[in-house]
Design goal:
The complex is a heterodimer of chains A (about 220) and B (about 120). With about 220 residues, chain A is an alpha/beta fold. Chain A contains seven helices and eleven strands. Helix content of chain B is about 45%, strand content about 15%. The chains are: A alpha/beta (about 220), B alpha/beta (about 120).
Chain lengths: ~220, ~120
Amino acid sequence: MYVLVAGGGKIGLHLIRTLLCQGHEIALVEQDRRVCSQVVEELHEVIVIHGDATSPDNLGRAGASRADVIVAAAGRDQDNYIICKMAKRLFSVKRAVARVNDPRNEELFRLSGVDYLISVTSMVSQAIEHEIVPHAMMTLFTWHERMSMLEIDLETASPVVGLPIRKLDFPPGSILAAIWRAGEPIIPDGNTVLQAGDEVFAITLKGSEDQLKKALLG
Amino acid sequence: MRMAEAGHDVTVLDWDRANLATYLPKDFPGRTITGMEIDAEILRRSGIEDAEVVVIVSRDEPTNMMVADLAREVFAIDRIIVRIDQPRLRTLYEEAGFEVLSPVLEAALSLERRVEAMGQR
């Protein structure tokens, strides 16, 4: 794939290294000349454009019209917003991924057609909340507000402990995908018996979370 | 200032208090609010819901464009005047029904007219 990365901060550069290892073709648009020089020296394969990524000319120079994906990883939400909007509307880039700082901006990003949001603030606060407040169930990921991956911690009192999965009364639109048991991952089948202390990972459609919680935790 | 003097109800929003102090006269009759422009809550507090016209003319183009979309998508404002200088972005927003203002283009056109006028003399 041809991936255009706008913004060579920590997130952008880490992503570029990862994508290069996977064999993708990468272009970077970055305003800071020192960062550009560093990337040119360290990562020869990357096409580097020195300039403001919120300018259509610079996106054009970076080959936006043939990019499969654009990743807007600049520091400010408004810059990432415009970068994605331009990529979609002016260059017909198929997929746009944006870093968002303020969770309140997420809705506007979605409305403008951004396909995937990386909300650093939301992720960090969820992770902290999970560590501080013990939750029997928490949402790990949500895809396009339609589908989620949940983690459910089973306690002794849970009605499903001691039952094989095939005997569970699972709500429609949910699947039990994996179990983390005593430091080991398990991909379960119908005969796997649930135990107290299991961390269960389930994938569920939006709206089925409460039913799933009821089925597993009572 | 001139719109406020002409009797219109004007509210000016800027994230930097110093800008408001520097660019508005002391006897400015309208309201001023300090706060981030890209914030639906601040916009609401500024009274955007009652606005007949929203004018977004900061020097920061990405901010202007995002606030313009916020004004339309969240607050359903019909008349939005937004400052955008880059030609392709101007077209994008004009086609989407915004009234686009470009000081760079205005200045260029004004210069062009003056040069033409000189040629006719």
